[in-house]
Specification:
The structure holds two protein chains of two kinds. Chain A is α/β, with parallel strands linked by helices. Chain A folds into two domains: 11-39 and 304-406, Aspartate Aminotransferase, domain 1 (Alpha-Beta Complex), CATH 3.90.1150.10; 54-301, Type I PLP-dependent aspartate aminotransferase-like (Major domain) (Aspartate Aminotransferase, domain 2), CATH 3.40.640. Chain A has helices at 2-8, 16-21, 24-27, 44-57, 67-87, 100-110, 134-143, 161-167, 190-199, 219-222, 247-252, 287-303, 305-325, 349-358, 371-376, 393-410, and strands spanning 32-33, 94-97, 121-124, 146-149, 172-178, 203-207, 226-230, 241-245, 263-266, 271-273, 329-330, 339-343, 361-362, 364-366, 382-386. The longest helix of chain A is centred in the N-terminal third of the chain and has 21 residues, at 67-87. Chain B is of the alpha+beta class. Chain B has one domain: Sufe protein. Chain: A, CATH 3.90.1010. Chain B has helices at residues 6-13, 61-74, 79-95, 102-107, 117-137; strands at residues 26-32, 37-45, 51-58. Chain B has a three-stranded antiparallel β-sheet, covered by helices on one side. In chain B, β2 (37-45) and β3 form a beta hairpin. In chain B, α2 runs parallel beside α5 (117-137). The chains are: A alpha/beta, B alpha+beta. Chains A and B meet through α14 and α15 of A and loops of B. The structure holds pyridoxal-5'-phosphate. Pyridoxal-5'-phosphate is lined by residues 37-38, 99-101, 129, 131-132, 178, 182, 207, 209-210, 230, 369 of chain A.
């Protein structure tokens, strides 16, 4: 705890204004930031740890036999260990990548050639983020395997599990879906799909980009074969993310890049590759990012995921009921995460976002990298609110005031 | 400058020349992959009376008002004149110079919103491409 106290001062769970003070960008008080699903802000502890690394500890890893380099290597491995605990897995199953997109691409491009052929099927979700759709489209194009889509139940916008049971079967080789939709905020019952996929002998891949601040991760227990997420959506730095893979599944993937740091033995003609995560970590890693990510985990664990989740869900609940009261339409009949998408047939989401911005409120508008999904709903896009524990009820009220003005403008 | 001037809002709510014209000789398609907005601009070269222009589609207030003002600007021009009008507007947009038309001047506000520039420009750009291609072939 001594270390935590140094990093976080008197910060304790439930003291939300003290929590907000930990984020330098929010201290000035004129930013109402409601786009946390895109990226969260960074607490001082993360920023300072990264700065300290460059100022006092900079060295690369796995190379030098001098103290600084050894220390850097140890730091990297200790964050891997920390991350493994955070996800409920073993540390040799944790690969550092540049983010969710990179992680998913490592899987899609690394599957052995014979893994898929014509007649096989890849099951995906219509609301997928492009990062969890396009890699599978490309894989399908390369191998001839077909893409099959889960059905969403109208209005609820969660999976129709009866349909899922029908389409996940003998032909299915791979199921790749999200933990939580970044466009609707629906938290999907992915655990059920893990069982369906495994019963069919298929691989199960989880896009967990929106998961880490929503609930404790138990990838080991839930049995997913692979999972991917990004540091920057969990109070960590950009440019660093995680690929989790069961050890045997990771070993079956081809590395996505070749070079230093990922080899065991190299001759002029050929090379053998390191085992475990390092096979996928060719080149000098984003060490400052890894260190920042380690601090982000400490920060999250110090505050506690459960209190943060209940905080966000009360913010979302209030926003949802006020929006509905004012005549806005909300995507999905229930809020199951910190994300909420709303719209109005007569007001374009980009107009909403630009006008809110004039009042100092930052939200996301558009198709949220789920273009085919928005089209299928007959929408060009939505305005999306996404909360973090540092947001306040006052910000929800500020948002609603501003939205009322916008409605008047367009009426 | 206010991007949401009452006149822009008025034009977006009740845009002039907002109608399909599938028989039109030329069509310009403005599609913005960033936001999914999509307009078709219909250009009918009446030869003697000049261009008849209308548009249809879906987009934000700024892009809708901009497309409406585009159709108004090109109305009655010949191909050469229409291209000149477009080029003049785009030059004014970049330099924030007076366009000589009060409504068009309101669109220049979009220059201050980097993510919204294309809302004001796209219909014009696509029409420019379509008209230039006609000029070359015709
Ligand atoms: C559900 C989901 N998947 C994937 C991504 C891509 O994450 P990144 O851009 O960090 O690779 C995001 C980010 O917006 C997301 O929300």
């Amino acid at each position: 705890m001594a270390k935590d106290e140094k990093n976080f001062g008197a910060l304790s769970a439930g003291d939300w204004s003290a929590l907000r003070q930990q984020f330098p960008i929010l201290r000035k008080g004129d930013l109402c930031y409601l786009d946390n699903a895109a990226t969260t802000h960074k607490p001082s502890s993360v920023i300072e740890a990264m700065e300290h690394f460059y100022r006092a500890e900079n060295a690369t890893v796995h190379r030098g036999a001098y103290a600084l380099a050894e220390k850097a290597s140890l730091r990297m491995e200790s964050v891997r260990e920390q991350m493994a605990q955070f996800m409920g897995v073993e540390s040799h199953e944790v690969v550092f990548t540049s983010g969710t997109t990179h992680s998913l691409n490592i899987i899609a491009q690394g599957l052995p050639d014979q893994f898929l052929k014509e007649g096989d099927e890849i099951v995906v979700c219509p609301s997928a983020h492009h990062a969890n759709l396009i890699p599978w489209q490309e894989l399908s194009r390369r191998t001839g395997a077909a893409l099959r889509f889960l059905d969403l139940i109208p209005d609820q916008l969660t999976w129709d599990l009866d349909q899922a049971k029908k389409i996940i079967g003998d032909k299915t080789k791979l199921v790749a879906v999200a933990h939580t939709s970044n466009s609707t905020g629906i938290r999907y019952p992915f655990e059920t799909l893990v069982h369906l996929a495994h019963d069919a002998g298929a691989l199960f891949i989880l896009d967990a980009a929106q998961a880490p601040l929503g609930e404790a991760l138990h990838f080991g227990r839930s049995g997913v074969d692979f999972a991917a997420f990004s540091g920057h959506k969990m109070f960590g730095p950009t440019g660093i993310g995680i690929l989790y893979g069961k050890a045997a599944k990771l070993a079956s993937l081809r590395p996505d890049r070749y070079g230093g740091d990922m080899i065991r033995n190299v001759t002029f003609q050929q090379a053998t590759y390191a085992e475990g995560p390092r096979r996928f970590e060719g080149g000098t890693p984003h060490l400052a990012g890894i260190i920042g990510l380690g601090q982000a985990i400490q920060f999250i664990e110090h505050i506690g995921i459960d209190p943060m989740r209940s905080r966000c869900s009360s913010l979302v609940k209030r926003a949802r009921s006020l929006l509905l009261e004012d005549g806005w339409k909300v995507l999905g009949s229930q809020s199951t995460s910190s994300i909420l998408s709303f719209y109005d047939d007569g007001i374009h989401p980009h107009d909403i976002a630009t006008l809110l911005n004039q009042d100092g409120i930052a939200i996301r508008a558009g198709h949220h990298c789920a273009h085919p999904f928005m089209r299928s709903l007959g929408l060009s896009g939505t305005a999306r609110l996404s909360f973090a524990a540092y947001n306040t009820m006052k910000e929800v009220d500020q948002l609603m005031d501003s939205l009322k003005k916008i409605r008047t403008l367009f009426s | 400058m206010d991007l949401y001037h009452p006149r822009i809002l008025e034009l977006s709510k009740e845009p002039v020349n907002f109608r399909k014209n599938e028989e039109a000789e030329f069509k310009a398609h403005a599609y913005n992959p960033l936001c999914g907005d999509e307009f078709t601009i219909y250009l009918d070269d009446g030869r003697t009376v000049g261009l008849k222009v209308s548009f249809h589609g879906y987009g934000c207030a700024v892009s809708k008002a901009s497309a409406a003002l585009l159709t108004q600007s090109l109305e009655g021009e010949d191909l050469k004149g229409a291209l000149q009008k477009i080029e003049h507007f785009m030059e004014c947009f970049e330099s924030k110079a007076d366009t000589g038309n009060a409504d068009l001047n309101l669109l220049l506000a979009a220059r201050d919103f980097p993510s919204r520039r294309s809302c004001a420009l796209q219909a014009w750009q696509e029409c420019q491409k379509t008209l230039s291609a006609i000029k070359k072939t015709g």
